[in-house]
């Protein structure tokens, strides 16, 4: 058996629980997955996936208070009333999405 070292990490309990559920279904121990990740860091000489900020971050309902959420809903309704919308069936060029 290969020698091993301990790795200690602090993770939010909810994330850990969700990970454990997924990994249990896959039949893979978490320690194996962590080892795979660390091996990929070595092989790729960096984080093995892209880390970037999204330019157009999707609107998250939970990150808004009621006033902000209601303002977005009212803005959308105003666009509907002003007919600043297009049907999904229409080509994106007709909707002004693609120039």
Task: Provide tags for this entry.
elongated, mainly alpha, 45% helix, 99 residues, Type II toxin-antitoxin system RelB/DinJ family antitoxin, Arc_rbn_hlx_hlx, 2 domains
Topology of this protein?
Elements: H1 13-26, H2 30-44, H3 66-81
What does this protein look like?
It is a single chain. This protein is mainly α and 99 residues long. The protein folds into 2 domains: 13-44, no CATH class; 58-99, no CATH class. Helices cover 45% and strands 0% of the residues. It is built from 3 helices and no strands. It has helices spanning 13-26, 30-44, 66-81. It is elongated, with a radius of gyration of 23 Å. The model has no long low-confidence stretch (mean pLDDT 80).
Question: In summary, what is this structure?
Answer:
This is Type II toxin-antitoxin system RelB/DinJ family antitoxin. The chain is built from three helices and no strands. By secondary structure, it is an all-alpha fold.
Shape, please?
elongated
Query: Could you give the count of β-strands?
Result: 0
Q: Indicate the percent of residues in helices.
A: 40-55%
Q: What is the ordering of alpha helices and beta strands?
A: HHH
């Amino acid at each position: 058996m290969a020698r091993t070292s301990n790795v200690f990490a602090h993770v939010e309990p909810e994330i850990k629980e969700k990970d454990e559920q997924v990994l249990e279904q896959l039949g893979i121990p978490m320690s194996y997955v962590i080892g795979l990740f660390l091996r990929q860091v070595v092989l790729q000489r960096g984080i093995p996936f892209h880390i970037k900020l999204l330019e157009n971050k999707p609107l998250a309902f939970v990150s808004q208070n009621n006033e902000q959420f209601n303002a977005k809903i009212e803005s959308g309704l105003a666009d509907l009333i002003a007919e600043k919308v297009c049907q999904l069936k229409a080509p994106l060029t007709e909707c002004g999405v693609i120039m």
